[in-house]
Amino acid sequence: MVLPNQLTILRIILTPFFLFFFLFPDPLYKQISLGIFIVAALTDWYDGWLARKFNYITTWGKFWDPLADKILTSSAFLGFAILGVLEFWMVMIILIRDFIVTGLRAYADYKNFSFPTSYYAKWKTFIQMTFLYYLLAVYVCSHTVQLYTGNEKLFALLMNDYLIYFTMLFITIITFHSGADYLYKNRLLIAKLIRNKD
């Protein structure tokens, strides 16, 4: 198995460890979870770079690499929902949409179908990931005594309930809309893919 695919497997393996440490109340465990998430995210960048540079592009990688990414990011969103930081219904909309679209694109790549990605979807992903990294960093830092002490007002501002809620609501809306837009615009390709599923 080529190295990029091994890194994809590593990313999947790291995900439950991230979630376990993240949900643990001990601040040290939360710091460990952030470290695990960063390492896992870096494997995503590195395996993509390796695959392009050395042409390590495989059918297996086409299918599993995007799914591994969604498994990792979805676990972070789910963790925040479990902790009560994010609304569970918003997280579920994002998770269901992303797994439908990502699974469809991964299967299409596996079958050598080309499904174009719109700029709208790319901007959605950028906004979604920026918010997730922001939330992870601020949340973990706010549970680190050395950083929190003396900066209570700053963290109260950065983790403001209204800021988090309405930002997440906006992301949920554009995530749902971009998914519906993607499925509608590619409906003919999807129908063709279904007809050629064998």
In short:
By secondary structure, this protein is mostly helical. It has helices spanning about 5-25, 25-55, 60-80, 90-110, 120-140, 145-150, 150-160, 160-185, 185-195.
Which geometry do the CA atoms define?
globular
- CATH topology type: Four Helix Bundle (Hemerythrin (Met), subunit A)
As a whole number of angstroms, the C-alpha radius of gyration is: 18 Å
Determine the oligomeric state from the structure.
Answer: single chain
Helix and strand composition category = mainly alpha
| Helix segment tally | 9
N-C termini distance: 25 Å
Beta strand count: 0
CATH domain class name: Mainly Alpha
Low-confidence parts lasting 5 or more residues at pLDDT below 50?
none
The CATH superfamily appears as: CDP-alcohol phosphotransferase transmembrane (TM) domain
Q: How would you spell out the order of helices and strands?
A: HHHHHHHHH
CATH-defined architecture = Up-down Bundle
Strand content: under 5%
Give the biggest sheet.
Answer: none
Please estimate the helix content: over 70%
